[in-house]
Structure formats: C-alpha cells, structure tokens
Amino acid sequence: MKMIISAIRRGGASGVRQVTLDGVAAGYPGRPVLSQLDAVIPAFATTAVVGPNGSGKSTLLGAVAGVISVTAGTVTHRTGARPAYVVQRSAVSDALPITVRDTVAMGRWGRRGLWRRASARDRSVVEGCLERLRIGPLADRRLAELSGGQRQRALVAQGLAQEADLLLLDEPVTGLDEAARRIIAEVLAEVTAQGVTVVQATHDLRAARRADHCLLLHEGRLLDSGPPAGVLIDEALERLWGLPARR
Ligand SMILES: Nc1ncnc2c1ncn2[C@@H]1O[C@H](COP(=O)(O)OP(=O)(O)OP(=O)(O)O)[C@@H](O)[C@H]1O
User: Fold this and answer.
1) CB 220 less than 6 A from any atom of ligand 1
2) Whose CA is nearest to atom 26 of ligand 1?
3) Helices vs strands, H then E, count in the chain
4) Which of 31, 204, 217, 223 to mutate to test the pocket of ligand 1 (most atoms within 8 A of CB)?
5) What is the Cα–Cα distance from 54 to 5, expressed in whole angstroms?
6) 163 pLDDT exceeds 80?
C-alpha cells in the first residue's frame, strides 16, 4: 500500500503494471490490425497512445477494454475489475433519445446492474461527474442536441461515473476547443493523482507530451514506448507524419 501511495504522489513511475500485452494480435473479421504487440501500461499514471490514422490505436484500446477479442497473445490486467471505456463521440448514435444525465447515469449500470434502482450514492456520483465536467446546466438536455465538445464531456463523465481503476479514452479531445480540452485534461490529471490509471488514444501531441508514458504505434505494431520526451522525438514525428523538426 505504501508503495502504491508513493507511486501516486510521484505521478506514476512505480514499476507496477496495470496492463501487460504479450504477443497480442487483434483486429476485425478479415482485417488483422495488431500483430505481435508487446506493451506495458503502467499503473497510477497517464499513458498516451499515439500513431498515424489507421495505426491501430482504437483497436488497441478495444483489446484492452475487452470489446475486441485478441486472436493471439494475452492481455493481463493487474486487477480483475472491468475498465471504463469512453468511445469516440462519433461512435455514439444521434438517434439515442437520452438526456445528458441519463448518459452519465449509464456509467453506474455495471456496478448496480441494469434493473436495480439507482441508490443515493449512484445519484450523488452522477451529479458529481456532471459538475466535474461542468455540464450540470446541460443535464436535462438530450445528448443529440449537444455540440461535439459538450457531448464529449458527457461521455467522459459517463466514464468517470464507473469509478473504475482503469479509464480508457478514445480521442477524448479531438476536435474540441481549448476550453473543453482544458476541462478534460484537468479532470484526467485529477483522477490520475487519485490513483486511477488513464490511457488515451490521441492525435494531440501536446496532450501526449504531458502524459507519463507513451505508446507509439505504426501499422499495428509498437514502434516505441516510454516517457514522451524520449518517444515523440523529431525523427519519429518526421518518419510517421512527415512533420519538420521543431526549432
Ligand atoms: N470495424 C472495423 N472493421 C474493419 N476494419 C476496421 C474496423 N475499424 C477499424 N478498422 C481498420 O483497422 C485499422 C486500424 O484502425 P484503428 O481505428 O484501430 O486505427 P486508429 O489508429 O485508431 O485510427 P484513427 O487515428 O484514424 O482513429 C484501419 O485500417 C481501419 O480501417
């Protein structure tokens, strides 16, 4: 326990593994994506999963979340608890006739079961998550009526409401304005400091540089991993995205 608390205080460099991927292959029917992927997600820290479009970031998150089956290798979790998985907002149908509060409350289903009534604690967690993402005033609006940034905050709030020890987010800040990005970044930093392991797939290299750990994917393989300062180097950015070196 002492080790865990001091790891939380140090921002995660504990050596404790939240998830270990060993020789993982995964993909879709007729479309293998990840292959021979070995990677570690450190506990109590933030990990950024980066790589060009189509490199397999979402597939990796899906395999860690358990929603995409691995066809070879193993994904081992430190705890048996179910991770919280926040999908890309484009994956959420506009036709869903639910309010923002309902959306966040769905995050409690895994804990209490679908058919049990929400407890006082369930309701207080939901209200707390709405507040944290600053969407309390939107709680009674329909999810489909929200802007992209507001909807994304509702989905992150749903992920938080699950109170999981592992929070997986697929491009949580893509397409958002600076204010919404900051709100989400602050909340993710807070929950990491509270001992949650956070993994986000992102195209935002600034966000990736703020992470404790980085996994760099290319064509379904792990090209590099480690502290972002050592992974997101000019050579890698130039090779993968054709970006010129920064001065
Ligand atoms: N449901 C699916 N069925 C078949 N192929 C898929 C499916 N989803 C993704 N793919 C393919 O798998 C590959 C990896 O996709 P994935 O979404 O994991 O990449 P990504 O790195 O998250 O991409 P992006 O940055 O564009 O979100 C791509 O070639 C994509 O076309």
Assistant:
1) no
2) 53
3) 10, 9
4) 31
5) 37
6) yes
The 10 Å Cβ neighbour count of residue 78 is 15
Residue, of 114 and 144, whose pLDDT is higher: 144
Nearest to 184 by CA among 152, 213, 212: 152
* Domain definitions of the chain by residue range: 1-82+166-171+197-247, 84-163
Fold assignment, 1-82+166-171+197-247: Rossmann fold (3.40.50)
Tell me, using a 6 A CB cutoff, whether residue 56 lines ligand 1. yes
Q: What is the pLDDT of residues 42-97, one digit of tens each?
A: 999 999 999 999 999 999 999 999 999 999 999 999 998 899 999 887 666 666 78
67 lines ligand 1 (CB under 6 A): no
Average pLDDT over residues 112-128: 83
Q: Is 117 touching ligand 1 by the criterion CB < 6 Å?
A: no
The complex's ipTM works out to 0.97
- Quickly list H helices, 30-177: 57-65, 100-105, 109-112, 120-132, 148-161
**Ligand 1 mean position, distance from CA 71 (Å):** 16
**Residue in the structure block whose two tokens are 């600076």:** 178
For residue 60, the ligand 1 atom closest to its alpha carbon is 18
pLDDT greater than 60 at residue 1 = no
How far apart, in whole angstroms, are the C-alpha atoms of residue 81 and residue 74? Answer: 17
Does ligand 1 have an atom closer than 6 angstroms to the CB of 59? yes
